[in-house]
Amino acid sequence: MRKPSQSSAPGSSTMAAMEVEDKQRRGPTPCCGKVGLKRGPWTSEEDEVLASFVRREGEGRWRTLPKRAGLLRCGKSCRLRWMNYLRPSIKHGPIAPDEEDLILRLHRLLGNRWSLIAGRIPGRTDNEIKNYWNTHLSKKLVGQGIDPRTHKPLATSVADAIHQPVPPQPYRNPNPSTIPSTAPTRAEDTQKNFSDRPNLQQNDDGDGWKNNECAVDRPLDQEGGNYDAREDGGIGIEYYTDDIFSSFLDSLINDDIFQPEHNNVIDDENNNDNSRSNNSDGSNQRMVPAPYAYTAPSVPAYELGTFWEDDLMAQTGIEEDVHEQFADHAGKY
DNA sequence: AAAAACGGCAACCGCCAAGTG
DNA sequence: GCACTTGGCGGTTGCCGTTTT
């Protein structure tokens, strides 16, 4: 059974009733309530069992994995441990200044889309980035007079919040019917776009960053070859548009459009590292140059979802359909 | 030296969408 | 179309080490 919810929404008695009803209809919630399952921090022994099992059997079937592997954990916990800690491609260690800079840029573009942001930062997980944001960057921005939610000066943000309490809305398509029917879902955002693309992940152009190459690579599905199993050999329309979105993101990240409001003061730490091409782990994966330092802007900030996008379109030459792709990718909350 | 406060982060929770039979 | 499973996401909690009082 689930642990009694500590963070239920208001009116949780109703929620609880619905939950009970739900359970009666569909049975116990997977993974969450079995008596005898271990919780809390993982031991090195458990890590070893899980890691060797996944290496041997591949990812997937998380629900039955604990039993097969002989672990007293719920499948969800196993998946989380693997994804956030044990995967060999995960980079451990402190966030480098260039990574921090990239997080800031991407958060500005995407909001709290941690998985999307993580997909653009080699070796980092969404959980890690989320934690880093909450514990470091948001405080840093507040200290610099910037609202971490809106990326606008705090005074303005407070006023805005009264009229516009919704977090940054990257784009509102005035004509939803024009969104391509192949528009990926939220889950696909990260799955298709950045991870399940062995053809891209395995390229050897020496620029693992630009082609969506997320260093948090995911092993191929060893069981069914589910990855990229489409009939067209994986060069479907989704891939085409995802490539566009990806390069679009790259152009956004790299574009100097961010500079006018942030180039007035450069962070000390970034000052020391802007010209650096290597990452903190010594790899040569291309990271975005970091002219983007957070300080209170001297000019009004660009507002997400407004004219800055026009500016972007003009600068990047991206046509309307791509704009829609971006909206669909980045605009779902 | 001890207690309290604080901060960082791993882990958990609830929810959702897609897939399957 | 329905019931259910699975995988994934963002938000939150709570443990634990560090710093401050």
From TrEMBL:
Pfam families: Myb_DNA-binding. One of its GO terms (cellular component) is nucleus. Gene3D superfamilies: Homeodomain-like. SMART domains: SANT. Residues 1-31, 163-228, 262-288 are annotated as: Disordered. Residues 272-284 have a biased composition (Low complexity). Residues 34-86, 87-141 form the HTH myb-type domain. Residues 1-15 have a biased composition (Polar residues). GO terms for molecular function: DNA binding. It is found in: Nucleus. Keywords: DNA-binding, Nucleus, Repeat, Transcription, Transcription regulation. CDD domains: SANT. Its main location: nucleus. SUPFAM superfamilies: Homeodomain-like. InterPro entries: Homeodomain-like_sf, Myb_dom, Myb_TF_plants, SANT/Myb. Residues 34-86, 87-137 form the Myb-like domain. Residues 186-195, 207-221 have a biased composition (Basic and acidic residues). This is Transcription repressor. The lineage of its organism: Eukaryota, Viridiplantae, Streptophyta, Embryophyta, Tracheophyta.
